[in-house]
Specification:
Helix content is 34%, strand content 19%. By secondary structure, the chain is α/β, with parallel strands linked by helices. Strands 7, 8, 9, 10, 11, 12 and 13 form a seven-stranded mixed sheet that branches. The chain has a four-stranded mixed sheet with strand order 2-1-5-6, with no helix packed on it. Strands 3-4 form a two-stranded parallel sheet. The chain is globular.
Length: 330
């Protein structure tokens, strides 16, 4: 997607220009994974003109493979971002109708070829929300990935500006039978799957015990290997608490908590988290390590403008090991 954001913390109505970035859920994950030393491939469709090429180039600069990106359609999806501050929340306005990816069909992708040498497939709930044809593409991709023995993860990523709760559950619940690693937060679990935790995150009540029953219920219902949840305490647009939980059917792990204050840009924080979980689990790291890496990576993303998390694995591990004082490195 093309992201057009107001400079700094200015409002839409007072801005004379936009900052330009490219991003989007799965694209942000691919960039992070490539930055951590993994080989990441992005699958999508962009228009066959200069803006589409600019989007592809934005992935190439990080080393993400784009050989599976189809070309065609009318336009690249756009979203407008107004970054909030203190008690004023951020706002997002979507302009995605008739985008190339929203009108893509099964004919645009050879999923058997795409997953032939893959070991992990990640998608987010935003993709099937783009329309019936994309929901079909996601299911066909999952079937091909399972056939190839590929691990599948999903970031539930509910967006009420794209579909209703009823529409989301009708599509997302049947897709969960393909998922090995389910990632989300308390809102995603409730809106997409119908599971509500016994926790008040906004009020700071984020004990692991409040999530235990829904993690177990989700695993029993859908057969997940891992259930992962981020826990964001939103005190203001500029000040959040941030930690996460993971469950493998036997053990609950809770991460260290980070105080994110001040936040530079929270967009893409969940994608940075997903990439961290994938990086850890795909490379055979212990479950607690994967969780701590993911939370540290996403905490660092909150310090960076733009969608993507431009940090290395070494920088994430440094924060994991307690180096978060912000002192100048000379």
């Amino acid at each position: 997607m093309l992201r057009l954001s107001t400079p700094g913390n200015s409002r839409f109505v007072q801005s004379d220009s936009f900052d330009v970035n490219f991003g989007g859920g799965e694209a942000n994950v691919a960039v992070s994974l490539q930055n951590y030393g993994n080989e990441a491939f992005f699958v999508s469709k962009v228009p066959a003109h200069e803006i589409g090429q600019a989007a592809v180039n934005s992935l190439r600069r990080f080393g993400v493979h784009v050989s599976h990106v189809a070309r065609g359609g009318e336009r690249l999806g756009i979203y407008y971002l107004e970054t909030g501050s203190s008690i004023r929340p951020s706002k997002v306005i979507y302009d995605r109708a008739h985008s190339s990816i929203s009108e893509a069909t099964l004919d645009d992708f050879d999923f058997d070829a795409i997953f032939r040498d893959a070991d992990w497939f990640h998608w987010s709930g935003i993709t099937p929300a783009l329309g019936k044809n994309m929901a079909e593409c996601v299911e066909k991709a999952c079937i091909a990935a399972k056939k190839a023995g590929v691990t599948i993860s999903c970031d539930l990523n509910y967006r009420n500006k794209l579909w209703s709760v009823q529409e989301a559950q009708k599509v997302m619940r049947p897709l969960m039978k393909y998922i090995d690693v389910c990632i989300g937060n308390e809102e995603d679990a409730e809106k997409c799957l119908g599971f509500r935790p016994e926790a008040d995150v906004a009020g700071g009540k984020t004990e692991a015990s409040g999530y235990k029953s829904i993690f177990q219920g989700m695993m029993e219902t859908f057969g997940f290997k891992y259930v992962v949840s981020t826990l964001r305490e939103s005190f203001s647009a500029s000040n959040n608490g941030w930690k996460a939980l993971i469950y493998d059917g036997k053990e609950f792990c809770e991460s260290r908590r980070y105080e994110l204050n001040p936040i530079v840009d929270r967009v893409g924080g969940g994608d940075a988290f997903s990439a961290g979980i994938i990086h850890g689990l795909a490379n055979g790291k212990p479950m607690q390590w994967a969780l701590e890496f993911a939370v540290a990576a996403s905490a660092l993303k909150h310090t960076l403008p733009g969608d993507v998390n431009m940090v290395s694995a070494g920088e994430v591990e440094s924060l994991m090991n307690g180096n978060g004082n912000g002192r100048v490195e000379r």
